[in-house]
Amino acid sequence: MVFDFDCTLSSKHVYHFINAHSHYLSRYHFPYIEAMGLPPSTPQRLEELKCISTALRRLRPLVKESDRTLFVDECFHGWARLRGLKDFLLTLQNKYHADLFIASRGDKDQIVNCLKELDPSHVGASTTTISSQKMSSLFPTERVFGQDVNKADLIKYLLGNPHVGTPSEPVSRDYQIVLYVDDCKDEHHEMLNTMWMQRLPHRKKDSPLTKQFEVYQTRQGKLYIYCKSLEYNGTGITTEIMRDCLLILNDHL
Ligand SMILES: [Mg+2]
Q1: Residues less than 5 Å from ion ligand 1, measured at CB
Q2: How many whole angstroms from 5 Cα to the centroid of ligand 1?
Q3: pLDDT digits over 81-132, tens only?
Q4: Domains of the chain by range and CATH?
Q5: CA of 170 relative to ligand 1 center, distance in Å
Q6: Contact (Cβ atoms closer than 8 angstroms) between residue 52 and residue 71
């Protein structure tokens, strides 16, 4: 299972939050604040966000619990969404024995550092319902890929394409099925342009998968399943898409 990071696992663009903070604020805070349902951007709040951004850019941990909560509220739409996301990832890992990967155009070290901020050791009493499983352990460092690894190449590698070299980090290959969720369609199109695959018809006529996903088969019979309906730069993976991912795996495994 391969996830993009920004605006897929996160609800907003964490790379921009960290590395292009002014651009991020102009995009998410100033013009659309009421439409986005965000708390008022008081000068104090904007200063707090800037300090969090600076710390994460320097790969420093967030010291104050209130800063972690503000970061999670800002970029992951709060602990409740994160709890649902973590439950989904745990189900993938424990029930379906899926290996979880992150493929991003962002900075690997920053992503690894951010994942640590989502761990329960950083969570206070008000959020004790979060699973004790650490987010950073769900995505081990060797399964997090940043800008130096082309996403389409990674997926082709996972599907056992012999023409794609080994990523710098050794990972398993020859998976029979790769499910890919990304809010950006470019890598998907690159996959289709560079790898022979046949799109498979949906087996269930009225399945919600018809709307959300496309299924392709390689010459070797392996499946590449792509989430086509995640909104670009939207609010991240939704509960509907999570549910459909599990339906797909029920169907194919
Ligand atoms: Mg993205």
Answers
A1: 4, 6-7, 183
A2: 6
A3: 999 999 999 999 999 999 999 999 999 999 999 999 997 554 544 444 455 6
A4: 2-10+78-252 (3.40.50)
A5: 24
A6: yes
3-class secondary-structure state, position 59 = coil
Find the 168 Cα to ligand 1 centroid distance in Å: 22
Cα 184 to ligand 1 centroid, rounded to whole Å: 6
Quote the DSSP letter at residue 5. Answer: I
Taking only the tens place, the pLDDT of each residue in 188-227 is 998 889 888 899 876 665 566 667 899 999 988 899 999 9
Strands 223-227 and 2-3: unpaired
The 10s digit of each residue's pLDDT in 88-102 is: 999 999 999 999 999
Cα separation, 217 vs 199, whole angstroms: 6
As separate numbers, helices (DSSP H) first and strands (DSSP E) second, the chain gives 12, 7
- Phi, psi torsion values for 58, nearest 5 degrees: -90, 10
The number of residues in the chain equals 253
CA-based torsion, 145, 146, 150, 152: positive or negative: positive
Q: Which token pair is 114?
A: 């951010």
What does the block give as tokens for 151?
């996403």
Residues 6+ apart with CB under 8 A from 70: 45, 48, 49, 52
Distance CA 203, CA 225 (A): 14
